Amino acid sequence: MKNTFITAEAGANHDRNEFQAFKLIDEAVRAKADAVKFQTYSSETLYSKYTPDFAGYNNITKLIKDIELPRSWQKTLKSYCDDNGIEFISTPFDEKAVDELYELGVKRFKIAGFECTDPRFVKYVASTQLPLIISLGIGTNLDTMLQIRNWILEVNDNPNITFLHCNNAYPTPYKDINLGHMQKMMTFPFARIGLSDHTEGILTPPIAVSLGAEVIEKHYTIDRTLPGPDHPFAIEPDELKDMVDNIRLVETMMGIKDTKYTKSEKEFSMARRSVIVIGDVKKGDVITKDNVTTKRPLLVDSIPAEDYYNVLGKHFIKDLSDDMILMNGDFE
Predict the structure, then answer these.
(1) Which residue, 79, 121, 136, 309, is most buried by CB atoms nearer than 10 A?
(2) Strands 215-219 and 192-197
(3) Which helix (H) or strand (E) holds 193?
(4) Counts for the chain of helices (H) and strands (E), in that order
(5) Angle CA(6)–CA(215)–CA(163) in degrees, nearest 5?
């Protein structure tokens, strides 16, 4: 059975409230996610102060300043994650963040979809030699995936890469999630493939896992009605738990049958069909379509219906009554 790596994306939904950040970790632990992920950025290094308004965002530099993760929290948040058995991840958005997180001892780095086409930054993150999870998001295609790998190979000759199919609309309409593209990504052998999902609700991630996704990332919040850019499209704690449970359920469905009966089917095997006698027959009679048919049940030593044509032309070696089940030893 596969074990999907599930990241609960807290992102900026801490709202610069440290208690709320701890609560987000608690909910990720309760949901049994594998990791909880924050984001480490500074307004000054993320956007130019001359950035115009876009996508409904006004004064983007102030908005980012208002939701920055205080970097002094990172050590405490990681320690709290360690104590609670969940992996701490934070997406870096500048070189200082990369250095800080590396010093904290994170196990892997995440590169966001908007940053994945910046070779300067991608190479800086890859130079840490840590495993990379990279959202292949806006403005990318399969060729971009190859290009990113080539950038990484310039600084790491044996990289551990996971690419996440991603649509960078918040929220992503279902018609734009394009899970078929994720499956095309799986044809490349040099990376694990998963999904960073921004659709509303919890339907999409389990479907992605059923299609082969090995990593899932999903934004969540304590309360979707809280103010802030990432709360409205995020899922709430009970939904996060249901999503993880559904993914684990899907994993149990992905087995390959290697026996005639599954364990659960064995008690129903008698409901299959056997060869059944029509009318009374005598020892020596030839078995024909006129004196045998097929019906339920199938017994341990009866002749299964699939062998019906194989017994035609053989001879009964004992008298049998109408509707009796033909057994091994009744003919030759």
Answers:
(1) 136
(2) parallel
(3) strand 192-197
(4) 11, 10
(5) 140
pLDDT for 270-324, tens place per residue?
999 999 999 999 999 999 999 999 999 999 999 999 999 999 999 999 999 999 9
Q: What would the two tokens of residue 99 be?
A: 């250095």
Nearest to 172 by CA among 234, 240, 114, 115: 234
Residue with tokens 């190979």: 153
pLDDT tens for 202-215 read 999 999 999 999 99
How many angstroms separate the Cα of 71 from the Cα of each of 41, 78, 96, 97, 118? 9, 12, 10, 8, 23
Phi and psi at 264, nearest 5°, equal: -75, -20
Query: How would residue 1 be classed by pLDDT, with cut points 50, 70 and 90?
Result: low
The span from the CA of 182 to the CA of 169, in Å, is 16
Own/partner pairs, 22-25, CB within 8 angstroms, 24+ separation: 22/77, 22/80, 23/222, 24/220, 24/221, 24/222, 25/77, 25/80, 25/81, 25/84, 25/86
Cβ–Cβ < 8 Å for 226, 194: no
Residue 229: which residues within 8 A CB-CB, separation 6 or more?
A: 12, 57, 63, 67, 170
Nearest to 193 by CA among 203, 179, 204: 179
Query: What burial letters (b/e) apply to 63-102, b meaning 16+ CB within 10 Å?
Result: ebeebbbeeebbeebbebbeeeebbbbbbbbbeebbebbb
pLDDT digits (tens, 9 = 90+) for 92-140: 999 999 999 999 999 999 999 999 999 999 999 999 999 999 999 899 9
> Which strands sit side by side in the sheet containing 161-166, from one edge to the other?
87-92, 35-40, 5-11, 215-219, 192-197, 161-166, 132-136, 109-111
Q: What is the largest CA-CA distance in the chain?
A: 100
CB atoms within 10 A of CB 34: 18
- If DSSP codes are grouped into helix, strand and coil, which group holds residue 171? coil
pLDDT of 56: 80
